[in-house]
Amino acid sequence: MKKLGVAVIGTGFWGKNHARIYKELTNTNLVAICDADAERAKTIAAQFGVKAYTNSAQMLKNKEIEAVSVCTWSTMLAKEALKALHAEKHVLVEKPMATNTKQAEKILKTAQENGLHLTVGFLMRFIPGLQHIRDAVETKKIGELVSATAKRVSEWPERIGDVGVVKDTAIHDIDVMRYISNEDPISVYAKIGSMRHRKFEDYAQIMLTYESGKSAFIESNWLTPYKTRTLTVTGSDAITRLDYITQELWIESNKESIQPRYPFQEPLKLELQHFADCIAEKKKPLVTGVDGIKALQVAEAALRSSAKNVAVKLKQP
Ligand SMILES: NC(=O)c1ccc[n+]([C@@H]2O[C@H](COP(=O)([O-])OP(=O)(O)OC[C@H]3O[C@@H](n4cnc5c(N)ncnc54)[C@H](O)[C@@H]3O)[C@@H](O)[C@H]2O)c1
């Protein structure tokens, strides 16, 4: 089996996990890593026995590299993703994909024009419990979908200094809501503000409404002294709850309460395995560039809604 030659741009807290997993997977070959911080690049490259770069343009000249994970600061993702696509590499760009929708659209267009594979790091979709919920919604095992509530709160991860909680954190749940409902919201109303963070918002309550009458509520903040990441989905016949941290899933109805169990799996490993498989088999990814753009559009609408204190209508395709 030919291994896919891969590289990682940005090997901080998250990118070094990409590098580790590319080393672990049997069908990927980690060729090199790049980090703007020379010391970090050297340390991570030595840890995985690959070449270190501080300039991605240099690294991308290497023909052995076929695909790249872009895991830089959020404000650098678009620039680095575009560089990699122009160098004819397939790209997994971390969420939020770009700092704005316009940049994200440029990434998608460049990938399409060059016939390259593009996916976005919406990790939650790879958690088996979330896939179970999506299936339960689609097959109406919980009846008609009524509403969904997501909570993603913790202390401020201080390394994040270039985007606020909406584009960094709530964006996961914005994507989850699209994924489980298989529908785009028609309007968003949000209350967003900053209590401790000087530059960006650190709390957000976002309500999404859908043409079919269902609604979703997303609570995100960097103020809560402990970490919670949960999803509750209410159907007309049953309610499901998922704890993203433990991956525990509950389904409760009038008749029964069940707890389907899946062996704990590292979502990032599933995501990167899928990335490599999709490239090898020329398959459409579970998370497309369009998914990335749509999540950013909702995030931007939430920020506008809060700034103007009005519900913002979203354009349907
Ligand atoms: N999908 C997820 O669940 C998930 C989880 C954590 C982080 N992320 C995303 O991953 C990205 C990185 O987050 P982090 O927590 O690792 O941040 P971090 O600050 O720990 O790491 C970012 C690294 O990128 C490097 N860097 C910045 N610009 C660069 C450039 N142009 N070229 C090369 N290196 C560059 C920095 O030196 C740093 O080492 C963010 O976009 C974040 O949203 C996603």
Describe this entry's structure for a reader:
Helix content is 35%, strand content 28%. The longest helix is centred in the last third of the chain and has 20 residues.
State the gist of this model.
With 317 residues, the protein is of the alpha/beta class.
Structural class: alpha/beta
> Which blocks of ≥5 consecutive residues have pLDDT under 50?
none
> What is the CA-CA span between the terminal residues?
41 Å
Main pleated-sheet profile: 9 strands, mixed
- What percentage of residues falls in helices of 4 or more residues? 25-40%
Q: Rg to the nearest angstrom?
A: 20 Å
How many DSSP-defined strands?
A: 15
Mean pLDDT value: 96
Strand content: 25-35%
H and E order:
EHEHEHEHEHEHEHEEEEEEEHHE
Question: How do the strands and helices of this protein lay out in sequence?
Answer:
Elements: E1 4-9, H1 15-24, E2 28-34, H2 38-48, E3 51-53, H3 56-59, E4 67-70, H4 77-86, E5 90-93, H5 101-113, E6 118-120, H6 128-138, E7 145-155, H7 165-181, E8 187-193, E9 203-209, E10 215-221, E11 223-235, E12 238-243, E13 248-253, E14 257-258, H8 267-281, H9 289-308, E15 312-313
Parallel strand pairs: 1-2, 1-4, 2-3, 4-5, 5-6, 7-10
Antiparallel strand pairs: 7-11, 8-9, 8-15, 9-10, 11-12, 12-13, 13-14
Helix pairs in contact: 4-5, 5-9, 6-7, 7-9
Bound molecules: nicotinamide-adenine-dinucleotide.
